[in-house]
Fold these 4 entries.
Entry 1:
Amino acid sequence: MEKQRIKRLIRSGRRFLITALLISVAAPVFSQTLTLEKIKQLRLVPEESQNLYTKTDIKFIVTIPYVQPSQVQVLAANQKDDITFRTLRKAENYEEQGTLIEIWYNFANKGDYSLAPISVMIQNHRRSIYFEPVSITDDPATLTPRIVLVFDDGTRVYSDELNFPKPLLTVPTGKKLGFTVNLQYATQLVQFNWEIPKDSIFTCTKQFEFTENRYRERVYSHILLPVASFEWTGLVAETIKLPTIRLSATGYNGYRSELLMPEICIDFTEADEAAAATDDADIFSAAFYQETAETSVVIDSELSYEDCMRLADYYSKEHNEFLLYPKARRDRINFEESCGIVISENPIFPTIYLYISIIIIVISIVFIIISIRRKHKIRMLMYIVLLILGAAVLFYCAVRRNERYGISAGCKIYSIPQENAESVSEVGRGNRVRILEHTGKWYYIEVGETGGWCTSDKIIIIK
């Protein structure tokens, strides 16, 4: 009896182990079954690293898991008239173990789109797969430059659009109305000016680097490039036109465009007495500040040739000074501020680093000799590493020191070194340029990310 009971227990244990093994093998299979809930969660999304532009084929992708391409049949959906179906493709996705569906559409107009879902036959069951909403924009490479005014309250006005309310805003007298002038779809700002309105205080509070005849990298995008910020305070209760703002800019196609803001009206209303009393001090301080701001905002600096030579001398002293480098740099900055020149954020590489690297090399050699005589191997290795680092810094400093810079005395930039060639742009007096080539009486200079040829007599070399 005891032996029979033991045999029954052994058989029961075997059955339990076999059942557990079958369940462990079959569980992943059942868990990978495509359910209706999983299908509802699927979305067709634009493939990454592609531009969502009008009149270009845009690919949408989705992976249906746990099914083979032979088990999937895609039925095209009817979209809006401005959406054109191009083609579709299905393939096996080995990474996600399913069927990859790719669909291409072409959009004729810009805007936000919610496409109609597509119908798909999956294992003889009809299902719907929805699209993620997409925002389609025009290709910026095909657009011309335009001005964009962005007010502090978020209101935007475009120079090429005329559909905006009149008056655009209602502001109490004595209250500052702030806005920023931006440039869009442009690679270079050539000229920028504005008019001072009557019966109000109009102040330029900040001018950005883009306005210094500097060039930006040619990247096609919808990004707004800030030009200048203003504050406008109305003194009389009436409807006043926004001061005329003019810009001359070069677009992505290389052509120059003259830009002008359309007529924009701001309705200045009577402010209550309490608010007017508290704002009186701000109004008159802004009036006096305006004179200072106008003199410090310089696009084409009104510098003389002698001032440009003095500025080049200050740069030369800063470039070559060692012990008095901080003083030389401070003198140069003070001179630029006195002339109303916007201080460059990228100074010329100072020679002081070259001197420091030489000192490090000399000290390292001395201590290496001392370590050898005293037979200190660890210290010797440390000083050898320091010597190598000093030599690397010396080499880098020597390369940087050979870079040539100059101060523009007011020059025109040409695409080729010929005076009868068409002028590409102008560089105002006092602007620092980098000299890359020298051919005869011509320099090839670089301003920002763009360069061109100019005559050597218009460039004062920084020694």
Entry 2:
Amino acid sequence: MLKKVVVPVLILLVAFGAYKLMNADDAPKAKPGNAQAQSTQTEKADAGQIPKEGDENKDGEEKKEEQPASRGRGPMGTGVLARQGATSVEVLAAKPAIRRGQVQLFGTVEARQQATITATSTAEVISLNVNEGDKVSKGQSLLTLSADSAQETLQQRKSALAELEAGIRIQELKHKNDLASLEIDKELLAISKKSVDRFSSLNSQQLSSSSDYEDTLRTYQSQLLSVQARELTIAQYEDTRQQLLAQRESLQSQIRQAQELVDDLNVHAPFDGIIAKIDIVAGQELRSGETIAQIYNPSALAVYVRVPMRYRLDLLPISDIKAIDRNGQAWQARSIRPINETGAQRLTLEPVAGSTNTHLPGSHVSVTVSYPIAQPTVEVPFTAVYDQQRIYVAEQGALRATDIEILGNTKTGYLIAADAITEGESIVTTRLKNPLTGMTVSVARANTGAKP
């Protein structure tokens, strides 16, 4: 029990002794003959009012200089820490002027003309004729495929078409023959009809047998059926012909499709462009619909960026909005439209004519968009703006908060609307941790023109 009491007491004594020792080292050693003067100077130092030699105003009063608070080494410090002095700040004189705004944004590069080439049938890659990044011309061979099934299908459909066309020709010849035979059949029918009439008259006069009349009548009826059958065949010919012609058109369409499949075995570039990606290798077996390569037109690239609504670029002539990326590529605004769901504006940028573009579709790029600002603005550093809506002005040794509207950026700061700021006002540029209106400040350095 005694040990638990003695140990904390010893620790406290050691800490107190160390504290007294550190404060004794920091205290100035007074000379024997100057004890009273040293005591007076110490009291003034504690009050922060040591006068500087030769610094007096015209009324003969001593100018008091504010001394920084001593931090001390002990937990309580010296007496100077009991008072908070004015915060030293740097200020900038407000200079309204017409300026061109800038804003740095990130966008996505997209190709407005691009194509994904896919396999139209099962095939094997025989050879690759280009590499990724190669420039190609319209119609240039990109790769060669092989597919026996496509060739066989094409040959089968061509054979079917030849057979069908032969059938159409046979039907046409048969129709001509039916037309000629119909005339003969009609003449034979007329003859048979006369025979029937004659034997009918003879039979009524009992000059011929009944069997002769019946034979003649059967011949007539048979000839009549023959004429009727041939007329029916002739009447059906046109419908039969239309059916055969429809079958021929269907086969011709199938042949064209099969021919396209065969032609697709030698893949060509659909337009002038750059090979963005190749997804296959030589010797690979492809399935129908599998991606082979991707090609894009470098002259049809565009960068799409989102611009905060506060910049209101939609109110400016589109030709006045320009941009430049980190590679020095120049871009010109093409269109701008609002994006309702995000409260932003979608800006479309196109490469300036004659410029070389090295970006790939789908890549991200940082661009600095520049645009004119019609109203006067004041340029302030980034450190001067709080919460994107407020700055502080040093006025008669104290801070005053001022609401602002950011109209643009520069490389080093913001461009804020000048309507809420008086020319020459001292804008605080030092970044303060917890600034408040009325907070005491002292100007350590001011740019030319700043009000004290």
Entry 3:
Amino acid sequence: MAYTANAAHENRTFTGGRAMPSRNRYAALALAALVLPLPCSLSADEPIPPAKPFAPIVYQARRARVMKALGGGIAVLYARGEEDADGYRPDADFYYLTGLSEAGAVLVLSPEERVYKERLFLKPRDPDDEHWTGIRPDIGDSLRRTTGIERISRTTALGGNLMGLLQTTNTLQLISDPGGPDSPAGPEMELYGKLSSKLPGLSIKNRTDVLPGLRSVKEPRELDYMEKAIAATVSAQHAAARSIRPGVEENWVAGLIDLEFKRGGAVRPGFPPIVGSGRNSTVLHYPEHNQTIGPGSLVVVDIGSDYGHYSADVTRTYPADGHFTPEQRKVYEVVLRAQQACMDMIRPGVYYEDIHRKAEEVIRAAGYRDYFIHGLGHFVGLDVHDSGLYRKPLQAGMVITVEPGIYIPEKSLGVRIEDEVLVTPSGFRLLTAALPRDPDSVERMMRER
């Protein structure tokens, strides 16, 4: 999924994307399952069950790493999830530290406390609301075992607890994404302001680098879930490739993609699928899916399944007729050449902005620099545009996308190729290697009907 901020000019910590907007459900889905063949990688009788949550000890260890990095003070983190067509989507920072999908919850970390260094606050229960949204847990030992947090209260007790904790420290640590300078203040900063008005002498320390630094280096268990999301996405790309032809609706292709995600263990997509044909192939985050695929057009399919809250992000560009025209192939090969040149640079210690400049260099040499209009890629994880420090060198364990593109609206010609790469101690591993990239292989994949 194209990262629209130019990475070469990124000047701040990028702490992940927000929940994507909802889309209309796909009317063609059920019929598609009956009419079109299923990808060979997932047989019809072998759907993958949804992911199980990690054990509480995983989230305890993550919170311990955050507190070690902070050293002292108090950090407050609010849950910022959003509702969409697939239900409540928890925000990635809060989920990373708790494993909870609880709207309105608050986590408090106090590393200097002798015994109870972490506290969880949940909204009061509302029986009427729960008739619509489901039963929420009571506070008790069962919830303490589930979360690994001993001190759990309702949010009505948050202020009093913080006033007590601030008797032994005068430092408030900001670990949440503050947003841009023109965006409204987050709930943490609002709360810190209220506390400072009551207790003069408090200081606020900027530690918004802590969570991006931790989240960007993936644990083995995270990589396992991400590779499952990638496998479902690869199957969905095969389904899309086989279904694309002149006269087919973009929405039909999107419906097939959603089916493959579900069969691959997803309960929701990582982000709304992008299926753009013709001039729509030049729209980076094309949302509509309301066009009929025309003869001679290109179709950009930018999709990512979700497995256990971890997203994939893979893009391919397909010729509607099953073969590229000479001009389409020329542009496609420039994009592929730029992508491979960038991948060849990936190893620990390299800066993302230098890799982006390599893409610019290759595309400029081919005469298309003005048509490369977005950043080279982004981190991937709990968010499709995941948390990470773009101005720091790459480290082993990071997962990034490499997705150069060329978009020529006046010719209705858009090409993007996007793959996920794991940075290894000696270089990189292409996580999406199972999906063809070169134009001849893409054409062969489309003939597998």
Entry 4:
Amino acid sequence: MTALDASFLYVETDHTPMHIGALTVFEGGPFLDEHGAFRLEQVRARVSERLHLVPKLRKRIATVPLRQGRPVWVDDVDFDIANHVNLLALPSPGSREDLAALCCTLQMRVLDRAHPLWELWFIEGLDDGSIAMVEKVHHTMVDGVSGVDIAAALFDIEPDPPPPQVPEWRPVPPPEPAQLLVQSGYARLVNPTQWWRTARALTRTPAEAVEVASGMVDALSAQTGLLRRRLTLNGPVGDRRRLHSVSSPLEEVRSAARALDATVNDAVLSIVGGAARALLDHRGADVDDLVLHVLVPVSIRADGERGALGNRVSGILVPVPAAEPAISDRLLAVRDQMAAHKRRHQSSGIELMLDGIELIPSALLPVAARVVHHQPLVDVVVTNVPGPPFPLYFMGAELLEAVPIVPLAGNLTIGIAVLSYADTLTIGVYSDADSCPDVAVFVAALRSGFEELSAAGTAAD
């Protein structure tokens, strides 16, 4: 397990579960038998026959004695699909608000580390007859892109696919504690070389070395967090969450952004900046010079690494000029900011800094990881993951909606996850119920932001 993967285990507390989630909604009929009962055993069988495509879904973590190394992945020799795929029912007729509340309750349950770190909860009882699914996969296993890869393995691209060829699974018994100690001793010698390998890979030529150095300088200069005023978006988080979503036709967003010579990601950041402005203005804050400090995760996963789990991410730190009331002005400013950070190769610099975690001794990594709960640099995380541009199916049921969920760290009260699926772009807003009781203002401003973007794009054409 890499140091970055392990850090998501160490960051986790009862108030900050570190799993990536999603709330999806399917057609209901194909899940039901002739008596209208949910076919849970068939669903479990369908998931089971896909597990060989993602081997880590049958692996649990094993800890090294005396914390002399990072946790390692071992086969769960007692794997039972019933620990991972289950059914709940809303009191009928269940509304979407009821579904979101149940989803948040499930998301706040920390995954059991005695088993592989994932769960699927199917939910019946919705008033329109659809079936929902709440997905939880620990961040130590996946980043946003590999999370989509899991969905691609479990779901189908047609309603009635041919039956898969399922190989026999033969779990490997886990190593004894003494073996783990020996293996961790070897890892302590090898892991620091990972940083040097990354450094060499990123700086194979003098020009590349200059690019990485420029990226590191840009990452540091992009944040004056230790000196800036704190926003009320930063604060302690409790044990209750709220989930909202806002959707828009993907082509509308893409066309409007293109008309302003920007990208979909630029447009999303501009809309989020406007929503933060509306929320802080609602709270009585001075928004005339408001700058929203956003962390945008960036996948560094090569094409050959698609399907492999773990975290292969860097990031860009973007100061979003949220003081601009007009979305066209915000969008142009964000576009220029993003272009400048890319020119200065900020993500390469951050990649090297993140890989520097490999140099931290295993015994100190838990302490270092928990610093994230008190970080002063970022106001909100906005992660944007491209999903498939075509419909997906499970058990013959079409996936109708998908709301992504990003976990909250200790002092981030709102998390933003963006997913494109088929012809729709959806923003999932996951917030702390106590520190952000007025999140409805933020959500309403997101909806207005999409409308303003469309109008600005039309005016620019």
